[in-house]
Amino acid sequence: MLTTLKPFGSVSVESKMNNKAGSFFWNLRQFSTLVSTSRTMRLCCLGLCKPKIVHSNWNILNNFHNRMQSTDIIRYLFQDAFIFKSDVGFQTKGISTLTALRIERLLYAKRLFFDSKQSLVPVDKSDDELKKVNLNHEVSNEDVLTKETKPNRISSRKLSEECNSLSDVLDAFSKAPTFPSSNYFTAMWTIAKRLSDDQKRFEKRLMFSHPAFNQLCEHMMREAKIMQYKYLLFSLHAIVKLGIPQNTILVQTLLRVTQERINECDEICLSVLSTVLEAMEPCKNVHVLRTGFRILVDQQVWKIEDVFTLQVVMKCIGKDAPIALKRKLEMKALRELDRFSVLNSQHMFEVLAAMNHRSLILLDECSKVVLDNIHGCPLRIMINILQSCKDLQYHNLDLFKGLADYVAATFDIWKFRKVLFILILFENLGFRPVGLMDLFMKRIVEDPESLNMKNILSILHTYSSLNHVYKCQNKEQFVEVMASALTGYLHTISSENLLDAVYSFCLMNYFPLAPFNQLLQKDIISELLTSDDMKNAYKLHTLDTCLKLDDTVYLRDIALSLPQLPRELPSSHTNAKVAEVLSSLLGDFEIRMDTNRNQVLPLSDVDTTSATDIQRVAVLCVSRSAYCLGSSHPRGFLAMKMRHLNAMGFHVILVNNWEMDKLEMEDAVTFLKTKIYSVEALPVAAVNVQSTQ
């Protein structure tokens, strides 16, 4: 119902203004009976209203009314006034009618209206009289539009089901926009997830060029402060995932509004906000939002009830989060441990790795659950677990054996590349799954056609690093198949990849002629040495040593001109306690090394002939990482070093650094004496011992 009433001409200006003020506050008091005193309304520029929590005090307004005398102040009160009605709109000069709020019951018989001069007048008329007035009122086109039925709100799920493309969603928006606009962005992201990569790229180009896209973005920015907080977060996540640049006004506006309204976050919103932060690139507004998120989590951590939400929050908290907050989240997770599902336990490894927090209790308990439910465990879960264990330096031998045995038992159902990826992760952890590696070697020998350049390098590195080909039944067939496959790629392989492959063959004590001949060409050696990567020079020195000491008769005449290595490169440093024990045990002992302290030198022929009763012993001080995890099986580099020392006439004795560090000096002497003089160490009795460390 629309009506316009003209002002009373016979009333003075001051009297009219006083009447206006009285009418305004009378209606304000009436309205206070319908609306909570702690809530007021905000009028959106799109014609949408939403309650907004504010601090208000009606008594202040009443007291203010009693003191109002100046007409200028009263006029100021009304210049931005707007009217709340049930079925009646308001109209000002040149402004279309807008229904701001629907109230279930009428504001008594008195109604508030604006006249054409924006005067506020109380009217005492019955509904019949008002209808008669409205019949004489000329209705404009804009008024007719406001009477039309507004389009029904449509959910994002329904949109994603009815539409087949991103453009379809934008077409639906352009025909009948509904609130909130977040539903359209969420629907578009849902549809995009169903598309292939090529289709997704094509649809995104159409989306950006669609005439309604900019309008949708404008609607989204306008509605950001009034829509429900969870819809704001859903839309921000969808917008980022759709590839809308993060430095746009749209994204930055939504970030700022998200910051301002972060106190509205409940448990569901915490989960969504965590996902949003994970999807966004670092920037100033994201940093501020993440800081506020951490403060909010610190306040609400004990209120989180859902385990999945807790894990999402923990994953998002970041590696640089305060340690106190990490421990608080750890304690919360320990409290909820009894409620962990199998999926929660599997996911916990990735969560702890994401926040860089090594909680042994959580990891041990979750490992037990993973092993108890290993059958049917997806490859993606196993990969995440192994990668997380590497990042956290968590070495659980039972867990690794259980995963390896499961893959070996179900070997036939796994694709070649998936098994290889598992083996690469095991190598990163230093774990040697013997049964699984044997099965994989057998598959390679039976089906060499499955090899390509990339997996050839990975297989060679994995098997040489773990020293698995040593005394294996299929060793000769395996290395021959790998050498043949590598030879087929020599015309396309890069110099560094060729060096890596040949270095792996050296660790396995196998020297295929074609790859070596290509690598030893002067131009390739020069290219490798000019690289800034000192690992190339180190590998070339290792290769040169292998050519001189291993069984490579056809390659021994090749002399490499290599620069001297820095002294820092060799990782074997003298163990001070071992040196002191050897000095007290043997007195003077001889250590013969080259001038660069890179190689141990054997006794001369003269010394050998004149001292036939001397047993040459090499004492190697090794770290735990020199062995495969949970065993005494030497890894590739240590095995090669032992092989070279044996070729030089030394008997090798391995001394574990971590064992020596635990012993007092007296116990260390006894331990080392037993090592050197035991029957296992020296099968032939010796009068003197010459030690090399």
Task: Write a concise keyword list for the protein shown above.
disordered N terminus; disordered C terminus; globular; mainly alpha; 33 helices; two-stranded antiparallel ribbon; 55% helix; 693 residues; 9 strands
Task: Explain what this protein looks like in three dimensions.
It is a single chain. With 693 residues, the chain is mainly alpha-helical. It is built from 33 helices and nine strands. It has a three-stranded parallel beta sheet, sandwiched between helices. A hairpin with a 5-residue loop joins strand 5 and strand 6. The longest helix has 20 residues. It is globular.
Q: Which of globular, elongated, flat, extended, rod-shaped describes the shape? A: globular
Number of helices: 33
Structural class: mainly alpha
User: Major β-sheet, in short?
Assistant: 3 strands, parallel
Q: What share of the residues does DSSP label as strand, in percent?
A: 5-15%
Measured as a percent range, the helix fraction is: 55-70%
Radius of gyration: 40 Å
Strand order of the largest sheet: 8-7-9
- Please give the alpha-carbon distance between the first and last residues: 102 Å
Low-pLDDT segments, ≥5 res? 1-17, 28-150, 569-573, 683-693
Number of strands: 9
Average pLDDT: 75
